[in-house]
């Protein structure tokens, strides 16, 4: 799979491109339906399957102070695209120039002329162009003038509600990982490179693999029973996502800390993926490290019981 950040690096494809456009945050089952529809068209029309995403995401650009937590990092999103069979990811820099493009510039100049798009698939609420005032009908109308077809899939429902990234954020914030799994079509997970921490966990008997998740706002916080994929396979454990108020008062960015059970290998510098299975409790500030240690023992027993009792599969 190719990641294209600068359009001057893209020299086209032999037969053209079938593209799905969106933020695709979380790549939930609605997003997967958009991509599957795009891939079906790519096979029928002998086109290269591609997606277009935006960095920063439009809501992040227009609401710099308060914007929704990302469900997936860019890293996780790209890995999911590859699994779904996408061959090219156009990662567009979203700025004022991009946001102010007219509908004709967007469809004809960008999609058709620069990217060689012949087929576009979007979600049911898709909008584009200056002020976001253009819809799928405008995309169809303008695309038809240059021989480019376009379509939007019907909304995808779960429990009588439309699946959306907003709804999944609600599930995650409430600790309803079961509902998030249904909407995502997989266990919610985070991945990253293990970095060296301050070693406090090791000193109190709970060594952790630390991952900087590189976001000020995390979609989840608290302590969880998890399974962790490393180069050595799947391991059971517990994880804390948050700001470590007992250890580092005033920490600004969320950190993922994972304690793997009965695991004695070095993971520094290695990539791991953490699957969140069930929430144990919210993150708390304790009076001292001894009190924290006592709670960690209770958390570990809870996590072991959850992982032993519940049937988690399909990782």
Explain what the structure shows:
It is a single chain. Helix content is 31%, strand content 26%. The protein has two domains: 2-156, HUPs (Rossmann fold, 3-Layer(aba) Sandwich); 187-309, Elongation Factor Tu (Ef-tu), domain 3 (Beta Barrel), CATH 2.40.30.30. The mean pLDDT is 90. The strands form three sheets. Strands 1-4-3-2-5-6 form a six-stranded parallel beta sheet, sandwiched between helices. It has a six-stranded antiparallel barrel with strand order 9-10-13-12-11-14. The protein has a two-stranded antiparallel sheet with strand order 7-8. Helix 5 (103-114) crosses helix 6 (136-144) and helix 7 (165-173) packs antiparallel against helix 8 (177-184). By secondary structure, the protein is α/β, with parallel strands linked by helices.
Summarize this structure briefly.
This protein is α/β, with parallel strands linked by helices.
Which features characterize this protein?
14 strands; 2 domains; single chain; Elongation Factor Tu (Ef-tu), domain 3; alpha/beta; 6-stranded parallel β-sheet; about 325 residues; 6-stranded antiparallel barrel; Rossmann fold; 10 helices
């Amino acid at each position: 799979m190719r990641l294209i950040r600068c359009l001057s690096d893209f020299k086209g494809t032999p037969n053209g491109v079938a593209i799905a456009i969106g933020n695709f945050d979380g790549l939930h089952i609605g997003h997967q339906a958009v991509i599957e529809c795009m891939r079906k068209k790519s096979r029928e029309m002998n086109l290269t399957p591609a997606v277009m995403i935006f960095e920063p995401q439009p809501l992040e650009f227009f609401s710099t102070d308060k914007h929704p937590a990302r469900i997936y990092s860019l890293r996780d999103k790209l890995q999911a695209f590859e699994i779904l069979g996408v061959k090219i990811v156009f990662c567009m820099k979203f700025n004022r120039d991009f946001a102010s493009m007219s509908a004709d510039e967007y469809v004809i100049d960008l999609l058709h002329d620069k990217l060689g798009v012949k087929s576009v698939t979007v979600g049911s609420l898709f909008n584009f162009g200056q002020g976001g005032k253009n819809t799928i009908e405008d995309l169809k109308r303008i695309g038809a003038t240059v021989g480019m077809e376009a379509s939007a899939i019907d909304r995808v429902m779960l429990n009588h509600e439309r699946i959306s990234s907003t709804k999944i954020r609600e599930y995650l914030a409430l600790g309803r990982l079961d509902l998030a799994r249904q909407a995502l079509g997989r266990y919610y997970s985070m991945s990253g490179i293990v970095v060296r921490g301050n070693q406090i966990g090791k000193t109190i008997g709970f060594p952790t693999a630390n991952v900087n998740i590189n976001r000020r706002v995390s979609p989840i916080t608290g302590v969880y029973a998890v399974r962790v994929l490393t180069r050595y396979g799947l391991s059971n454990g517990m994880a804390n996502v948050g700001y470590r108020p007992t250890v580092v008062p005033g920490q600004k960015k969320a950190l993922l800390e994972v304690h793997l059970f009965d695991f004695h290998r070095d993971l520094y510098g290695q990539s791991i993926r953490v699957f969140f299975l069930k929430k144990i409790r919210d993150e708390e500030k304790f009076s001292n490290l001894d009190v924290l240690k006592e709670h960690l023992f209770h958390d570990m027993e809870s996590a072991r019981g959850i992982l032993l009792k519940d049937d988690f599969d399909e990782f």
